[in-house]
Structure formats: structure tokens, C-alpha cells
Prior knowledge:
Blueprint: E1 2-11, E2 14-20, E3 24-29, H1 36-48, E4 68-76, E5 79-87, E6 94-97, E7 100-101, E8 114-117, H2 123-126, H3 129-143, H4 147-173, H5 183-219, E9 226-231, H6 246-267, E10 278-283, E11 286-287, H7 288-291, H8 294-314, E12 320-324, H9 332-343, E13 347-352, E14 365-370, E15 373-376
Parallel strand pairs: 3-13, 3-14, 8-12, 12-13
Antiparallel strand pairs: 1-2, 1-4, 4-5, 5-6, 6-7, 9-10, 10-11, 14-15
Amino acid sequence: MYVRHLQVVDFRSWAHADLAFDPGVSVFVGSNGQGKTNLVEAIGYVATLGSHRVATDAPLVRSGSPRAVIRTAVVNAGRELLVELEITPGKANRARINRGPVPRPREVLGILRTVLFAPEDLALVRGDPGERRKFMDDLLVARAPRYAGIRSDYERVLKQRSALLKSAGAARRAGGRGDLSTLEVWDGHLAAQGAQLLAGRLDLIDDLAPLVAANYAGVAPESRPVSIKYRSTLGDALPQRERADIAELEAALLAEIARVRPQEVERGVCLVGPHRDELELTLGDNPAKGYASHGESWSFALALRLGAYDLLRDDGAEPVLVLDDVFAELDRRRRQQLAKVAANAEQVLVTAAGAEDVPEELAGARYEVRDGEVNRVR
């Protein structure tokens, strides 16, 4: 799998850019603010329908433009597919595959898989649980694109049920009764969608955990060992099986929702479900957050991304590896370990402020990004 061609129109700082790629290493070199990250961000958007830098699409459209367009030619298992995405803030985005429109943009998921490591990844270790939930769900969708629909359906049900609880709670605090007549219906929807998402996450972390531990040991052999573990709001009620059983998880979620219903109505929020779960990161005997040093935090973040890369590769579709301005943040040992992995990837896209930041092992095509232009110089 690799990206053969990228074209962007009115994406971020780029009015227009048109690039051809080969398999192997491609390095974008340019000073900060020249737009090199914007180019790999566009490629990441094709793979995930999201940005690693912002939560909404509006900043992706060049100032003064009504929409942005990304076109990529992706070679996947010997077959080339043209993916086109039109991003229009405030309206539904549109997608085409080989010039033909598709019903929903998420139909393009799975055509391109990427694993991106960027400075923002420090939040995987030091940030709030939402960062780690997003990491799990993005990886889950990369492995099996059908989870994009499950994730979307769960978020829709959660929003509806939360609104019902909030309005009912406010009415009761004001002396009324609050209308909860449809709550059981939403309970069922939340449990059904939540069980599918929870099952996917549990199996994912079972597969990912040994890969993360091994990659961390390679990146930081002198450090304490690490582990990752899924923590569910079900607590001890979480069914224990080698592989998750959706029916058992749905029943457990329904039972727990019923148990905490008084607290939910009182507080006006949904207290049970994958939206409140956590991926626990442990360094030695302590939580990584708060105990890991700056270097250990970087190593853990890198191990999570490299573990994701190994997992997708083991699934049979080697992803494109994107390294966005990270070598300047890493010490010599971490640079070498990352370069060792990257050198064996089918395609690697690297951004760097200076060519001296890129390890020698990653010699390949070189692009200079300056003054609104990008030119291949090697």
C-alpha cells in the first residue's frame, strides 16, 4: 500500500499542490510555517476522515475559500484507486472513488491506512482519557472500517440519551417530574451499540498490548517495562472471556445502566458506556501519567504508534508510515529505533525543519517546501 499521487486545492495554507510519490521514503524539508505538515495531514485525512491537529474540519479550508479538495491515487494490493474528498464546513462532505460518488464519505475508509507519529502524540500519555479513546477507535476503524458506522451510531445515541437525561434532571430540580418515558428505549440502543464498540476495543487491546510492550523495550531498554489495559465503566461486571462476546456485554451494560439510573437522572449525564472508559498506561508499577519522565512519555507514545503499525501490518495491509516533525523531539537512541522500523516500511512520509534532523537510514526522495511551493530536489 502506498500513495502514488496527492493533489490538494484550498487545503490549509495551500491554494494548490500537486505531488507524485514513489514507494519508499519521501522527506519534506522546510522551515516552520511553510506548510509541510499540511501535506501529510491531507494524506492522513484520506485515511481517517479526521485531522491529527484539530477536532473540526473548518480550519482545514483555506481562509476565504468555500471548500477544500483532496485527491489521492492510492495503490492497494496492486490496484490503483483514486479517492477524492470535498470538505465544506457547515455542510456534508462529499467523496468519490474512481470519479464515482459514494453515499457517505466513510465509504473510502480502508482504501488507505496510515500510522502517524507527531508531536501531538505526547497527549496520548499526558492528556485526558478522550485522547486515548480516540487512539483506540481510530485504530479500530483502520483495522475494520465497519466500526466507523458503529462509532457514529453510538455517538448519536449517546447524544440523544444525554439530552433526555439533562432535560429530565433539570425539570426535576425545578420541582417537576421530567419526562423519562422513552429512556428505556434509549437504554437499549446505548447498550446495543456500546456492546459492539466495547467488544471491538477489548479485542483490539488484547492484540495490541504485547506489541506496545515489545516496542517500548526496543525504544527504551533501560527503562521500566510498560503495559496497557482496558478499564471499563462496568468494573467487576465486565464479562471475562478470551475474546469479547457482544451479547454478554450488551446484557452487562443494560444491567449497569439500570443500577445507576438514579444517579444519571440526578446528574443529567450518561455514566455507563465506552464514552467513559479508559486505556490505562502503566510504567513499572505506576500510572504513566504523572510518573513518566518527558523521555519516558515520548517513548510510550512512540511505542503506541509503532505497536499500531505492527498490528496493521500483521493484519495483512502494511500502512503508510507518517513521521511528522518528530525526529527533532527524540534523542539519538529513539531516533535510531524509529528509523530502523521506518526503513523497512513500504512507504514513509517524513517532515522535518532541517535535513540534518532526518537519520541517514531514511535517505530517499527529498522535497523542499518554501514560499508556497513544493519541489522535488532529489
